[in-house]
Amino acid sequence: MTVATSDKLSPAWSIIIYIATVHLIALLALFPGNFSWGAVGVAFLLYWLTACIGITLGFHRLVSHRSFEVPKWLEYVLVFCGTLACQGGPLYWIGGHRIHHKYSDTELDPHDSNKGFWWSHLGWMLWENASVKEDIPRYTKDIQDDPFYQFCEKYFIPIQIVLGLLLYWWGGWSFVIWGIFVRLVVVFHVTWFVNSATHKFGYQSYESNDNSRNCWWVALLTFGEGWHNNHHAYQYSARHGLEWWEIDLTWMTIRVLQILGLAKNVKLAPTRSSD
């Protein structure tokens, strides 16, 4: 992989327009006529489904790191939920995340936190990075030929449109504004905080050779992803909250799946006594 220098970057206008449009439409939620508790409830349910079940459990801990195994049908369900977060297709998301871990906080990291909070939070997405695009196939060899992953990669925007039509049928424009646009904005920034805030705020329990930190408020918003220093120290671990006070709701979900016999070969970090 070649170093991504400034002369190799050009504005990613499609992404800039996409992110700006989602944020602008979400502002319609400020109008009283677009508010209803039902719409807020739908937004929260979809937030949990996309951020916790889809991104955190599916894209991240299951597929990106293979921290545990589930039946293929359940893997597809989790990946589909991640697709609803509309952060690119699963190949793009998972490949980019694996690249991040390989080069965390170095020049080759797509969202190197040494370039500043703004860059690691959002700025890195606003520029076309040919080097990362070229390398994603090398980091997704285990999933790139899977027809379901290819479908989600190609059609994640149409899938979101279908969801919007269903929400309009169910509850009108308020459900669409809150369930699609407000929810996407929240999921966007909550996910981006893992790239930015947890490489700047919090404490370090382990030597991870990067800036990753454990940040309680990001962990609260992301169902456990904020225990980021723990994760970078033990990337394979299905559990990120390694101390009793580090609440990890996603790990609790994995435990439920394990009890039900749906999660197997669960990988865990060593205990402190065996470090």
Automatic annotation (TrEMBL):
**How is this protein named in the record?**
Acyl-CoA desaturase
Q: How does it sit in the membrane?
A: Multi-pass membrane protein
Annotated organism of origin: Hydrococcus rivularis NIES-593
| Assigned protein family | Belongs to the fatty acid desaturase type 2 family.
Cofactors demanded by this protein: Fe(2+)
Q: Where in the cell is it found?
A: Membrane
Instruction: Identify the residues that the record assigns to the Fatty acid desaturase domain, covering every copy.
Output: 37-251
- The portions of this protein that span the membrane are 12-31, 37-59, 151-170, 176-194
Which GO molecular function terms does the record list? oxidoreductase activity, acting on paired donors, with oxidation of a pair of donors resulting in the reduction of molecular oxygen to two molecules of water
Cellular component GO terms, alphabetically? membrane
Q: Which residues form the signal peptide?
A: none
Q: Name one GO biological process term.
A: fatty acid biosynthetic process
Q: Which UniProt keywords apply?
A: Fatty acid biosynthesis, Fatty acid metabolism, Iron, Lipid biosynthesis, Lipid metabolism, Membrane, Oxidoreductase, Transmembrane, Transmembrane helix
What Pfam families does the entry give?
FA_desaturase
